[in-house]
Design goal:
five-stranded mixed β-barrel, globular, two-stranded antiparallel ribbon, alpha/beta
Amino acid sequence: MSSINSITGDIVWPSDAERAKYTIGWIAPMPVELAPALALLDRISTFHVVNDSNIYQAGKIGNHYVVMVILPKIGLGGIHSVAGGMYASFRELKHLLLVGLGGGIPDYALGEQMVLGDVVVGRQVEHLDCGRRTLIGFKYTHQTYYPSPALLKAVNTLRATHSLHGTRISQTLQGIRKKLHRTIRDNPEDLGPNADQLFDPDYHHKDDDKRCDSCCDIRRSKSRQERGPKAHREKDSPLIHYGTIGSGNSLVVGSKERENLYKEFGTICFEIEAAALMEYHCLVIRGISDYSDSHKNKEWQLYAAATAAAYAQELIMRLPAPVHDVRKC
């Protein structure tokens, strides 16, 4: 097998023995979510496997061999075949990560503040698609899923380490920027507090074809400073939140629905892929690019994808290395 140190890498048809090295699977729903992930790999090869339509990007993070794949489209469509193909082609996979973007709840618990660029780690996933209409509105039925015990142990260990020493996300972001192609290198930047406005819950976006800064009344929003000290962030220093992630076929795009789901299920982040992957006990890691309301934009997407990827790298480094990796390193 050959490979080169680049984002594209050689196209390789790996042998069974070569594929057996890979113990961590990483799924990125969109290109904007895959790009910063690829920048974390020490060496990259593009893998094709017989009787598998997936196209894999493979390499190493620390002592771990990691294989990455992108979805054909966002949401639940096709995700079963992607994950099934990955596990059929890489039979020694021990852990699965779903890493990408999510919508967050801006304030929860006892005044905790979530801002754009923060990261949410799913300690559990609530599948929220099912339900029925009642006299008082839509009543969700739900199923609760959990990551594997091994991944939850790694999350808890890393959380304790962060309490003592802080995260390495800032340093990792610098490395990601250096590796990304010059045409997008400026995009995974922390846009700062002036680009993060939280609009009033009853104030909806005015024109789907325009950005908030050209059609919405900024007086109907709060800046991070107005939200209090818990919304303050130093540059490239996102906060890590741990809690329940809500997953369904459609995006939550309203502040009222967002708040109702938090009150009923404790969901602090919303996305549309995880529920289809929880049979593999995957860990869901989401960078916050919007507040799950009507004021959605793409400006924060690459940065939020990068912060989620940076956390995922730290987590992988906490997992015990497979025996065959220890011998070779």
